[in-house]
Amino acid sequence: MVHPALSGLPPTGRSPDVPAPPAPAANQEEVRRQNLGAVLRHVHVHGPTSRAELTARLGLNRSTIRALAADLAAAGLVTEKAPTTTRRAGRPSLVVSPRSTRVYARAMTIEPDRLRAARVGLGGRVLDLREVEHPRGSCPADAVRPLSWLIRDMERTAGPDAICVGAAVAVTDTTHGRDGRIRIAGPDDALRVAFDAEFPSGPPVVAGDMADIAALAEQVRGVAAGVDDLVYLHGGPGVSAGIIIGGRLVRGHGGHSGKVGHMVVNPHGHPCRCGSRGCWETEIGDAALLRHAGRDQESPDTVAEVLRAAADGEPAARAAVEQVADWLGFGVANLVNVVNPDTVVFGGSLREVYLAGAETVHRRLDELALPASREQVQLRPAALGGTAALVGAAELAFAHLLADPLGGAAPA
Ligand SMILES: [Zn+2]
Hints:
Blueprint (H helix, E strand, L loop, with lengths): L27 H19 L2 E2 H8 L3 H13 L3 E4 L13 E4 L4 E8 L3 E8 L3 E9 L10 H13 L6 E9 L2 E3 L5 E3 L4 H10 L6 E5 H12 L8 E6 L3 E7 L2 E2 L31 H4 L1 H8 L6 H12 L3 H25 L3 E6 H20 L2 H4 L3 E4 L6 H16 L9
Parallel strand pairs: 4-7, 7-10, 11-14, 14-15
Antiparallel strand pairs: 1-3, 2-3, 4-5, 5-6, 8-9, 11-12, 12-13
Helix pairs in contact: 1-3, 2-3, 6-13, 8-9, 8-10, 9-10, 9-11, 10-11
Bound molecules: zinc ion (ZN).
């Protein structure tokens, strides 16, 4: 079972005038399973919620909510407690809360220079977080053993009744080859096999692209909460996008969609690591910012230094940010025309570039995007910052539990 947003595009291939086939009659058990999932998902996303509010929000009757909450509590997934304060007279409605410190997911990231692992509790709370350096020249599968050490180290200090219900890893599409050059990689079979070997008895590790997973995180808990059509742009050594349309993540035929960093925007521009020339990434990636600012060493610290210098008014750094913001607006206008998103979210180093050069990005957008699309679109800096990928990975990891809370080996 995968996250609903990862299960592919909405149903396609049927023209709108052909009636949909009748839905199969759902049996009682199926309805109960869906309702349990709806209650657990609500408290997972929105936090502690009274039974009365669940009744109103989910459109179910009071006795049904009472029974569902009792089942989830008996399974050890939620608690039900009287509210600490109540404004109404009479018996207060019990508050249903996720058991965040008991039920958790293993969330991991494989980034260009570091590996991170976290225990994220139901409800999206980061309970514990560790990180180590990821030496340049390593392939993603080399990350599996150090990540498993981090996970085991954290789990030694977890409470005796803590239970892991899922695991996921966000993999950047940018790694450094053994020659030190950056190259394009991502989740692959070798990675899955290595994780299976490292965690033979735990829940299987689901792998996803970093930008896709950060997009999910922003859509569930961040600046695009509840938005169905969004483009999340992640900037760093490489540039990629998580694109959600109709509430579903677009993955493409082979799972490689969203490589917007390789849209050719300047055919006479700089050579790109992909072998092409003038890709968007060569104009808005970290290397472009450093090139424009007259710095030559590419590292997250140097990028942060240029962004800081720009904020302090250093002319070269300021001009570099403006130049990158200009190209950023150019590409965003194209994406807005193609996708017609409700929101475009800027993450990674593009978050800071957008914040520093928002006026330039908007000017380009106004100049180049079609009015019908640009007038509706919101541009937003990512809200979740550095933990987005871990929070998003946890969402992937919780998907199975949220789809079927008491199914199979339900925690007790
Ligand atoms: Zn390229």
